[in-house]
Amino acid sequence: MSQLSGNTSTRATSPTRTGPDARSYTDVLTFHIGTEEYGLSIEYIREITKFKPITEVPRVPSFVSGIILVRGQVVPVLDLRLRLRLPGAGAGSRSRILVVSRPALESEASSEDEREPFGLIIDRVNHVVRINDADVEPPTVLAGHESDFVAGISRIRLAGEEVPKPAMRYGPGLAAAEQYRIVILLDLLRVLTFEHGGSMRF
């Protein structure tokens, strides 16, 4: 497990997979929003930047905070907390903006650099972890709108010093066994797909 400091802009590398099953595992950047831990595949992460002033734009959904400039490119920024329909909160000292590439549609052949970038405001960055597909469960335990943006629920084994005593609860309404923590894996394409001005934006 490697840790990203989040103090400077960080260029992510694409995950590597080996073995007969090319989808046996995924390298995931984990981060916190409030008390919950979320994850995105690092193949979509362009860089991580410190929180910076955001220019507001009119007539956009409430979860669109505005735009920023990243390496000379205009990037729309979403407040991930509001996008996930969680209570709003101001940015803190550990808040970061994840600059991500929109996942390619099945019909697309474009490269990462050709796809539209977005910024996602998060509360703090945690680690990059490798998650086995066998440890990911469908979000059937979540009801209604809670599961709209969730691709799966992952269990990550805790290191010895991380094991809570007594057992603690992790995740929204989920009780984890002592040796695991829960990471909510987001469906990035759904997060970045929304209606704006009468048309779908993605």
Question: Can you describe this structure?
Answer:
With 202 residues, the chain is mainly β. It has one domain: CheA-289, Domain 4 (OB fold (Dihydrolipoamide Acetyltransferase, E2P)), CATH 2.40.50.180. Helices cover 4% and strands 40% of the residues. It has two helices and 14 strands. It has helices at 80-83, 188-191, and strands at residues 2-3, 25-33, 36-41, 45-50, 64-70, 73-79, 96-101, 117-122, 124-132, 136-137, 150-157, 180-186, 194-196, 199-201. The strands form three sheets. The chain has a seven-stranded mixed beta sheet. A hairpin with a 2-residue loop joins strand 5 (64-70) and strand 6. The radius of gyration is 17 Å and the shape is globular.
The CATH class is Mainly Beta
Cross-sheet strand order for the largest sheet? 1-9-2-3-12-11-10
Radius of gyration: 17 Å
- The sequence of SSEs as H and E is EEEEEEHEEEEEEHEE
Largest sheet: 7 strands, mixed
The number of helical segments is 2
User: Would you identify the regions where 5 or more consecutive residues have pLDDT less than 50?
Assistant: 1-21
Q: How confident is the prediction overall: mean pLDDT? A: 79
Provide the CATH architecture.
Beta Barrel
In CATH, the topology is named OB fold (Dihydrolipoamide Acetyltransferase, E2P)
Strand count: 14
**Straight-line distance between termini:** 32 Å
Helix content: under 10%
Sum up the overall morphology in one term: globular
How many separate structural domains?
A: 1
Structural class assignment? mainly beta
Strand residues, percent = 35-45%
